Amino acid sequence: MKHQEAAAPGESDAAGEPEPDDVRASLGRRRRILIRVVAGAVALTGAGVVLAATIRSPAQVAADAAPPPASVLADRVERRVLTSSVVVRGTVAAEQSLTVSPGAGAAAAAGTGGKPVVTRINKQPGAAVQAGDVLVEVSGRPVFALAGALPVYRDLKPGATGKDVGQLQEGLKALGHPTGKDPAGTYGAGTKTAVTALYAALGYTPRPADPGDAEKLQAAEDAADLAQRGVTTAKSALAKAKAGGAADTTEAQQQLAFAQQDLAKSTARLEAARAAAGPMVPADELVFVKGFPARVDAVKAAVGEAVPDGLLTLSAGAPVIRASLPAHQKDLVKTGMKVQVLSEATGLTATGTVASVATAPTPASGGGAPGGGPGSGGAGSGAGENTAQDPGGYALTVTPDQTLDARLSGQGVRLTVTAASSGDPVLVVPLSAVSAGADGRTTVTVLGKDPGAADARRRVEVRAGMSADGMVQVDPVGGGSLADGDRVLVAQAKP
Predict the structure, then answer these.
(1) What pTM did the predictor assign?
(2) Which tens digits make up the pLDDT trace of 190-200?
(3) Mapped to the 3 state alphabet, what secondary structure does 121-184 carry?
C-alpha cells in the first residue's frame, strides 16, 4: 500500500482547496490596498475643494466687487378720512369737588372762643345732600348747602350787593322763602325776612350782621326823634314870632332850616342803620354747590373734636372727565372738539366734548386737583378733581355727551381728542413720500409694476393738505393723476 506525501505549505491539497492561512493572508493584502486607494481619493477631493474656494475667475471677482442693487421702499396711496388725534389719560369725577372748612366765626358767635368744635355730624361719608340740608354743626352753628356755581368768599350781610347775593336769593326762593321786592343781587328787607325764615326752618336763630346792631339802631332812632323835636320847636318859635307882630323873623326861619337839615341827616342815618341791621349768612355757615344731589365724600373729625382744615369734602354736579395735557399738545386741543372715551378696565365707551383747556400749567401737587384747593373765606372751596397733574400739564375738562355709566365713576379712562379731520375721504400718502423741488413744486413719485424700474416711474405734482399720524393729504394738480392703490416711492436706499 502506497502512502501519499504531505503537501507543502501554501499548496493545494489533493482536492484543490486552499489552506485557511493562505486565505487570511490574501484578504489582508486586499484590505490594505483598498484603504490606500480610498485615502488617496479623499485627499485629492479636499485639495480640489480648497483650490476651488481660493481660485476665482476675473469675471467672478468683478461680480463680487459690484455694488448691490438699490432697494426701494414703497407704500400705497389710500383714500380715507384723515384725522389728527391727541390721546391722554383722564379720570371720571364729579363736576365739582369742594372742601368745607368752617372758620372761627361759629365759636365766636357761641361765645366759646378758641378753636371751633364739632358738635354734630348730620351727613356721614357717602350720604346724599339736598338743597337746604345741614351738613355739620360747629360750636352750635349750622353749615348748610344751597345751589350756586359761585363759591362762598364773604359774609352775606344786609345791604350787600353782587352775584353771590343773587345766588343766595335764588336758593332761598327754591326752598320756599321769597325775598319780596328786593332787586336781584341786593340784600334788602325781603332777603332779611327770607333768611330769618330759613334759619327758623333749620332750627336755628340767624346771627346778626353786627352784634352792636341793636344799640346802633336805638341810637339812630333816638337821634332822629331828637331832630324831629328840634324841627317842631323851631316851627313853634317861628309861628309865635309871626303872631307877635315881630318885624324880623329871619332868625326864627333860620333856626327852622337848621332843624330841618338835622332831621334829614338823622333820618338818613336811621335808614342806613335799619338797612344794615338784621340777620346775615356767615361765609362759614354756607356752602354753594353746582347741583343736587351732592354727596359727602369724607369727614375728618368726630363730635367733640376741634375742627380741622378740610372738615368735609363734597362732590357735586354732573360727572365730567378731567385730564392733563402736556405742554406740546396744549395748542392742539380747543374748546368744542369731540372726544372718544374708552375704559380699558370695563370696555365701556362714550363720547364727549372739550369743555375747557387751562391757559396756565398746573404744577404737580402730589394729588392736588387742577385749579383746586380751598377757597378763601368760605366754608366751601373751589372745584377740582383729586388727581395729580403732570408737571407743566394743562388742565383739560371733558363734558360727556350723555350721562356716563355709573361704573365709570372714579375710573381712569383713555381720551382720544379729534384735533382735526378732513371730513370726507381724501387721498393720503406717507409724509416721506412727498418731496419739494428747487422750483417749489411738491411732488410724489408713482412706481410702475416693477418698483426697481426707474424708467417706469412718473412724477405727479400734488398740493399737500392736513397731516396726521405720519400721513398727509395730497391732491393732484397740473393735470397729474393719482388714485387709490397707486404705489408711491417712500425711500430708496443707495448702495
Answers:
(1) 0.54
(2) 999 999 999 99
(3) ECCCCCCEECCCCEEEEECCEEEEEEECCCCCCCCECCCCECHHHHHHHHHHHHCCCCCCCCCC
